[in-house]
Each structure stands twice: as structure tokens, then as C-alpha cells.
Design goal:
Order of helices and strands: EHEHEEHHHHHHHH
Strand content: 5-15%
CATH topology of the largest domain: Glutathione S-transferase Yfyf (Class Pi), Chain A, domain 2
Distance between the termini: 35 Å
CATH architecture of the largest domain: Up-down Bundle
Number of domains: 2
Radius of gyration: 17 Å
Number of helices: 10
Structural class: alpha+beta
Helix content: 40-55%
CATH class of the largest domain: Mainly Alpha
């Protein structure tokens, strides 16, 4: 397979409702990197990501998927890695090795843990209708785990994890906003941190997107 050129305009496939946290990561990464890309929306309720052609090209049929020339790549954190290395522009990850590793640790943890928060505060409650149910005991436990880890990771008085913004800030703010937007208790300094990320132009562009009526999937 020939290597794609940075001159090839990438295409980012995302969900039509613009509520996927993984689409969010990839979209914000592209915007922060300054990459001009085309966004193509796929309907998950209609299983448009399950077509044979899309699955064969993306390998896993996952959303989001990035197409760059003849190269297709899924998994949002890996898409962010690829954009950071394939294109010139501001760094998406810290330059320092240990900080970069910590950022990737947090991103991997957010994707692999906190399932009760993700189940009880699904992303449609962030962009459509808020949850009307209090967190269960398991949900509260997971929320406290999130708050504990975020409290350790975010330095006092800072609005970023490290000296400069990185893509892990977007990921961490997104999962905190699952609680904040649904009225769950979050310490003031973590609320301020998440709200600072929510003011970034790249994040606002995603969050303020005009969305079609929601369909469960």
C-alpha cells in the first residue's frame, strides 16, 4: 500500500448524532492539529458502519474511522496518534516522554474503566435529554473513582493536565461532563477544569453541532 501524503485531504467517518466520545476525540484532535478534513456521517441505528465495504477497509468497522489516501484507520486514540505524526501543527501530546505516557495512560483508562458512569450517563444525556435518574451505588462508586483519578491528575490551579493543552485534556473533560451536565456532584476545581476545555473552539464546534432527532441504537 503506498503511503498517503499529508496533502491528501483526510476523511473522518463519525456518528450522525455527534455524541460518540471517540468521534469527539478524533474530531477535536484534527481541529487542534489544524488538519483540514471532510466529515462523513454514518447512521449507527441503520448500521451504515456495518457494510461489507466499510468493514473491509476499516478492518474493524468501528466509528470513528479516518481515511487518508488509501489508508484507513479506526480507534480514536490511534487516530489522534496518527494525526500528530502525519501532519505539521501544534502537538496533540506532550513533548516530554513521561507526560506523553501519562496522557496515553489516562486515555486508555477512560476507554477501559468507568463502565457504570458510561452506562448511567450515556452521551445522549449530554447533547439531547438529561438523565432523570440518580446514580446507582455502582455508578456513584465509579464516579468517585473518576473524581479521585482526575483530582490526582489535574494540578491545583491549572486548566490543563500539563503545561500545555493535550488531547488527553479533551478526553478527561468529556467524561467529567457526563456527570457535570447531568447535575451530579463534581468538585469545583474539576468542574472549572472541564468547563475550561468546553470553551475551546474545537470542542465548541463539536458540541454546538446541529443534530438530528435522536434514535436509540
Amino acid at each position: 500500500m503506498p503511503a498517503p501524503s499529508a496533502a491528501d485531504k483526510p476523511v473522518l467517518y463519525g456518528d450522525v448524532f455527534w455524541i460518540s466520545p471517540y468521534f469527539f476525540t478524533a474530531f477535536v484532535a484534527a481541529r487542534e492539529k489544524g488538519v483540514a478534513l471532510e466529515v462523513k456521517e454514518l447512521s449507527l441505528p441503520r448500521k451504515e458502519h456495518r457494510t461489507e465495504d466499510f468493514q473491509n477497509r476499516s478492518l474493524t468497522g468501528r466509528i470513528p474511522t479516518l481515511k487518508h489516501g488509501d489508508f484507513w484507520l479506526a480507534e480514536s486514540n490511534i487516530i489522534a496518534d496518527y494525526l500528530d505524526e502525519a501532519f505539521q501543527g501544534p502537538r496533540l501530546y506532550p513533548e516530554d516522554l513521561r507526560e506523553r505516557s501519562r496522557a496515553r495512560q489516562l486515555m486508555a483508562w477512560i476507554r477501559s474503566d468507568l463502565m457504570p458512569v458510561r452506562e448511567e450517563r450515556p452521551t445522549y444525556t449530554m447533547f439531547y435529554e438529561r438523565s432523570q435518574k440518580p446514580l446507582s451505588a455502582k455508578g456513584q462508586e465509579a464516579a468517585q473513582t473518576l473524581i479521585r483519578v482526575a483530582g490526582l491528575a489535574v494540578p491545583e490551579g491549572q486548566s490543563t493536565l500539563f503545561k500545555s493543552w493535550c488531547i488527553a485534556d479533551a478526553d478527561l473533560a468529556f467524561v467529567l461532563q457526563r456527570l457535570i451536565l447531568n447535575g451530579d456532584e463534581v468538585p469545583a476545581r474539576l468542574r472549572a477544569y472541564a468547563e475550561a476545555q468546553w470553551k475551546r473552539p474545537s470542542v465548541r464546534e463539536f458540541c454546538e453541532r446541529k443534530r438530528p432527532p435522536y434514535e436509540a441504537y
